[in-house]
Amino acid sequence: MAVDIKNLNHNQLNDLITKAQSRQQELRKEKVAKLRDKIHALIKAEGFSFEDVFGPGRGGKGRRAGGTVAPKYRNPADPEQTWSGRGKRPRWFNDALKAGKKEKDLAI
C-alpha cells in the first residue's frame, strides 16, 4: 500500500500523519504487551514471582509516601508557625529576613 503524498492536500496529509501516529502507538503498545508477557513467562519459568525480582509494589519509585518533615525554622513572633525548610518560604520567614534576622536566628 503505497501512498503518493505529492497528490495530497494539506488536510489529507495531516489526516494521514494523525492516522500513522495512532497506528505507531498501537504497534508500540502491542510490542510492550508481548514483551511484558515474555518477561512474566521467563520469571515464572525460573521459579520466581514478579515481586521476588522487582520488589513489592510498582509505584512510587523509591519515594516515601505521606511522610512529614520535622520543622527546621520557627517564627519568633508566633512560635506555632514553623517551616521545614522545603518548598516556598513562608511570608513570616521572608519578613524576618528583611528585618535583619539571619536564617540561623530562626532555626529551631
What does this structure look like?
This protein is mainly alpha-helical and 108 residues long. It has two domains: 46 residues; 34 residues. The protein is built from four helices and two strands, in the order H-H-E-E-H-H. Strands 1-2 form a two-stranded antiparallel sheet. Strand 1 and strand 2 form a beta hairpin. The model has no long low-confidence stretch (mean pLDDT 88). Keywords: Cytoplasm, DNA-binding. It comes from Dyella jiangningensis. GO terms for molecular function: bent DNA binding; DNA-binding transcription repressor activity; minor groove of adenine-thymine-rich DNA binding; transcription cis-regulatory region binding. Belongs to the histone-like protein H-NS family.
Strand order of the largest sheet: 1-2
**How is the main sheet built?**
2 strands, antiparallel
Secondary-structure element series = HHEEHH
Query: Using DSSP, what is the number of strands?
Result: 2
Note the quaternary state here: single chain
Strand content: under 5%
Q: Which parts are unreliable, with pLDDT below 50 for 5 consecutive residues or more?
A: none
- Please work out how many helical segments DSSP would assign: 4
Structural class based on helices, strands and sheet pairing: mainly alpha
**Helicity, in percent?**
40-55%
Indicate how many domains the architecture comprises. Answer: 2
What is the averaged pLDDT score?
88
Termini gap: 72 Å
Shape: flat
Radius of gyration computed on alpha carbons: 29 Å
